[in-house]
């Protein structure tokens, strides 16, 4: 393995589920890379394909799933990997933390026994060594009196402690990638913050990369390095978290930022995005967000846009109208229907809005980005 090799490279990932009613295109053309020690946030409405993408990386999809594209972990292809080869990666190199700890913890065994077994599954060591490792790993996730707690059953732990025990389970084999699927949603705010803090400490200590799937934009803002926004089964915007939050270049991201409670919105009114997410069985032609987009034009409905480079440090967006958005004086108002009347036909609004400037010539925009990139050290 070369040092420049990415920890994870996902290229053109697609996941289809054939059902009686038709084929569900749950994940479509997803490509991204993850570096060692990087924290990537994946956000998007329910059903946008976040969990299915991460299950594909873990090799945890049901047999009915049709997977296409490539997922390379340290250069090894995971798609199509089965049996022992997959087991070796799963739980050892890549570990997963779920929303409900009881999906990983068995109620009939002590927490310490389960941790020790998880360690022994990947290491040929005596039981005593595995037990010591279990206690050490409980200590690592901040559980007080870990030697006493290790002898207890999951139901004797509080919700926050169970979540920590599950993190202990995930890290016991020193994974290089931790996938956390809504790991704190069920916890109260203070405990959430502590659990997230623990995850970041583990990243600092072990250098593991973290993929954090969450609805909570507050979590994303406070924790991740890079964010990836999903809609209709694909990535519609990605970039450094501050850049994406401060200068979103896909109207869906603007809508998402204004519709979900998060720290940056304190004192502001929430504005839901009108309409419903698309059916993944029957996607609209062109951009999947076009039926709900206040900036839609006829071109948006003819072909699905590529993920276009829209700024420095890998900022990209799947929107042919991103320059219009970039130059819009008040992007947040795009979704503030009540302030500009109820919008039945977003195309009419875009056409009637005189504040929308004409887009710069695309070549000029590319040149401007290239110049900015050159200036960045
Ligand atoms: N086994 C399956 N068979 C058929 N469709 C499925 C299956 N698993 C998931 N899907 C569909 O795939 C789509 C994407 O689901 P996914 O769970 O990835 O969404 P999500 O963005 O993680 O949502 P949430 O935030 O609610 O977990 C959904 O439409 C879902 O119904």
TrEMBL record:
The keyword Transferase does not apply. Keywords: ATP-binding, Cell membrane, Membrane, Nucleotide-binding, Transport. It is found in: Cell membrane. Residues 8-257 form the ABC transporter domain. It is a peripheral membrane protein. It holds the Pfam family ABC_tran. Its main location: membrane. InterPro entries: AAA+_ATPase, ABC_Ni/Peptide_Import, ABC_transporter-like_ATP-bd, ABC_transporter-like_CS, Oligopep_ABC_C, P-loop_NTPase. The keyword Cytoplasm does not apply. Belongs to the ABC transporter superfamily. This is ABC transporter domain-containing protein. It comes from Allokutzneria multivorans.
């Amino acid at each position: 393995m070369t040092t420049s090799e990415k920890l994870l490279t996902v290229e053109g990932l697609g996941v289809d589920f054939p059902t009686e009613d038709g084929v569900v295109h749950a994940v479509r053309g997803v490509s991204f890379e993850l570096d060692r020690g990087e924290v990537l946030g994946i956000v998007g409405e329910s059903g946008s394909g976040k969990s299915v993408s991460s299950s594909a990386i873990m090799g945890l999809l049901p047999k009915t799933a049709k997977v296409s594209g490539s997922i390379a972990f340290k250069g090894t292809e995971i798609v199509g990997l089965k049996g022992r080869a997959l087991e070796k990666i799963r739980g050892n190199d890549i570990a997963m933390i779920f929303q409900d700890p009881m999906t990983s913890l068995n109620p009939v065994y002590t927490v310490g026994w389960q941790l020790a077994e998880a360690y022994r599954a990947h290491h040929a060591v005596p039981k005593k060594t595995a037990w010591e490792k279990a206690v050490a790993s409980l200590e690592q996730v901040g559980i007080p009196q870990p030697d006493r707690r290790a002898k207890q059953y999951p139901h004797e732990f509080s919700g926050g402690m169970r979540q920590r025990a599950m993190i202990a389970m995930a890290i016991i084999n020193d994974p290089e990638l931790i996938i956390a699927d809504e790991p704190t949603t069920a916890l109260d705010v203070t405990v959430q913050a502590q659990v997230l803090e623990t995850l970041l400490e583990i990243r600092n200590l072990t250098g593991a990369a973290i993929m954090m799937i969450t609805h909570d934009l507050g979590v994303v803002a406070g924790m991740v390095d890079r964010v990836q926004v999903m809609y209709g089964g694909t990535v519609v915007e990605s970039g450094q978290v501050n850049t994406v939050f401060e200068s979103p270049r896909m109207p869906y991201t603007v809508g998402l930022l204004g519709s979900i409670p998060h720290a940056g919105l304190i004192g502001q009114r929430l504005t839901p995005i009108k309409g419903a997410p698309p059916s993944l069985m029957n996607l609209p032609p062109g951009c999947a967000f076009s039926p709900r987009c206040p900036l839609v034009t006829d071109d948006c409905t003819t072909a699905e846009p590529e993920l276009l480079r829209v700024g420095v440090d890998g900022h990209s967006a799947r929107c042919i109208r991103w320059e219009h958005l970039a130059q819009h004086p008040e992007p947040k108002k795009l979704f503030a229907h009540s302030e500009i009347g109820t919008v039945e036909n977003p195309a009419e609004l875009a056409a009637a809005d005189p504040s929308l400037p004409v887009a710069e010539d695309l070549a000029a925009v590319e040149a401007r980005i290239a110049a900015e990139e050159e200036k960045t050290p």
